[in-house]
Design a protein that fits this description.
By secondary structure, the chain is mainly alpha-helical. The chain is built from two helices and no strands. The chain has one domain. The two termini are about 20 Å apart.
């Protein structure tokens, strides 16, 4: 699947949210990349067909 190249979305995550993601990771949770991927999938599923 081809897609338009986008800037890294991580630069849109604010410092407070990044700290929360890091804390989750440090407590034995998922790596930040997995947390972000999961959130994106959930958002896409939730908003599918509303655009």
């Amino acid at each position: 699947m081809r897609y338009k190249k986008y800037n890294w979305v991580g630069n849109k995550i604010d410092d407070n949210d990044m700290c929360i993601l890091h804390d989750i990771k440090e407590r034995g949770g998922k790596p930040i990349t997995e947390q972000v991927a999961e959130a994106v999938k959930e958002y896409v599923t939730k908003t599918k067909g509303t655009a």
